[in-house]
Every structure is written in structure tokens, then in C-alpha cells.
Amino acid sequence: MAITKPAPPAADERAGPSRGSEGPRLDSPLALTLLLILLVLAQGPIRQALSAPVMQSWMTVFVAVMVQALPFLVLGVLLSAAIAVFVPPSFFARALPKRPALAVPVAGAAGVVLPGCECASVPVAGALVRRGVAPAAALTFLLSAPAINPIVLTATAVAFPNDPEMVLARLVASLLVACAMGWLWQRLGRADWLRPPARAAYDGQSRGAAFWGSVRHDVMHAGGFLVVGAMAAATLKAVVPEEWLSAAADNPVVSVLALAVLAVLLSICSEADAFVAASLSQFSLTARLAFLVVGPMVDLKLFAMQAGTFGRGFALRFAPTTFVLAVAVSVLTGAVLL
């Protein structure tokens, strides 16, 4: 007796419910069309709001910070991507002394000649640890590279043309903090606090693909944080009452702590933070130095990246200690050099 197989379902049945049964969808062209219609309908109020004096002041500060910072941001991203992709981690392992106590200052000094933003320093430090470099040296490089590289120091000199001592103060304070944290980790750090980092995200790709992938990633992340930082600086200048800023700036302790906390919250890329700091002219040079030292070492995005690379337990110990030490060294350096 022949058994007949049931006929396969028709194409319409295999496809499931028709698109018409899903209801209206807000896809990208429709959303863009609705946004354009709203902008056309509201162009009168928008034009009136933008012509207000406070908005004119806001736009002036925002555009000035962006125009000054973007070239350094792009150059820094390109150089950091090139180092992360084309310089093998084994190079650092061979170049560093075998003794961790000596490797720490060498790794700190390497940040002067190896440009890179904080977005790139975390994966590079993770690669160093994965290839056998002493954690104390790798963590020193993690802190020093985004804070004292040539791009950052040049941007600082451009942002503070009338205060050239800021460049030296930033170099000295940042290098001291990086080396002190390296020695502190060597002395007190425990192996179970540092989770072995996973393999780099670009392993297995061609160098060209890895380079452009790193550039796209850093531009999107660092550029976004730069926009947020420029907006915050413009808001502080245009919206916050002058007497509030003056009251905070006039108190030496409050001014330093306020800008140090602001650096953590804004999470600005180190290639661009000097221009934001320069716009906060109400504050003393020492307070702005704390902003420049803390930002490349401790901020929200860095905490997330460190937790993802080395473990949350490491980040919860490392970030607060770095913050306290960075503030203290900034005050001492400012008292001597500024």
C-alpha cells in the first residue's frame, strides 16, 4: 500500500504571517521623514531659540572646543590604532627590564614616545599581560600612555598658549601617578585581583581590517565623548550662573575636587580634554591640572573597559586608588610648578 507524503506548504504558508498583519512599522526612512516634518513645522520656535543670547554663547563655546580638538583627536586615534595593530606585544616584553621594579618607570616613560588614547591603552595593556609582561609594568603603561604622549602634550600647549608651564606640570604629575600606581600594585597587588584578559578583539583579522576597525571604534567612542564634553563645557559657560562657578573656583579645595569629579563624569578623550579645561577659565591652573591628570586615568568609560578586561574586582580597587593619588599629586605638582 503506497503511502503518499503530504504536500509541502505553499510559499505563503512557509513565510508566516503577511507583513500587512504586523501593523505599521517605524523604519528609518519613515522616522527621518517624520523628523524632517517636525523640524519644518517648528522652524520658527527653533530659530527664535537659537537666536537667544544664551544659545549664541553656548554655540560659540561648543564650536570653538570642537574645532580646536578634532584634529588632535583624529591624529591620536590613527596613531593609537597603528600602535595597537602593527606593533607586536612581544616588542614591549623584550624592551622592558625583567625586574618589575625597574620595568615600571621604563613602561611609564614609554608612554611619552608611544601615542595612544585611553580607549587604546586598556586593550594594549591587556595584550601585554597576556604575553607575560609584569602586571605592574603593564598597568603603568595603561595610565601613562594616554596622559603624556606627544599628541596630548602638544594639544595642551596649544590649549594653554599663555601658560606653557601646564605642559610640564601635566607631564610630571601624570608620570608620577602612573609610576606610583605601578609600584603600589607590585607591592600590594594580588594575583587573584587581576583576571587574565581575554584575547584581543582583532586577533585573526588582517592588519588592514584590524587597523580600520580600531579607527572606526575609537572615532565613534572618543568622538561621542568629545561632543558630550564640549556640550558640558559650553553649558557651564553659558547656563550655570557666574557666581556659582566663581564660588566653587574661589575655594581651593572645592575647585580641585569639582574638576576632578567632572573629569570622571565627562570621560573626554585625552587628545581633546585640554581644550575643555582651557575653557574653564574661572578655575585655577591647579584645579585644571587635576582635571587633566584625573581624566585620562579615571573616568566612566575607562572603569567599564578596565572591568571588562581585567575584572570588576580589579576595577573597584584600581580606579578609586588612582583617583585619590591623581588628585593628591596634582595639588602637590601645582603648588610647585604653577
From TrEMBL:
Principal localisation: membrane
Record-level GO cellular component terms: plasma membrane
Intracellular or extracellular location(s): Cell membrane
Any Pfam family matching the protein: ArsP_1
Keywords: Cell membrane, Membrane, Transmembrane, Transmembrane helix
Annotated membrane topology: Multi-pass membrane protein
Membership in a protein family: Belongs to the UPF0718 family.
Protein name: Permease
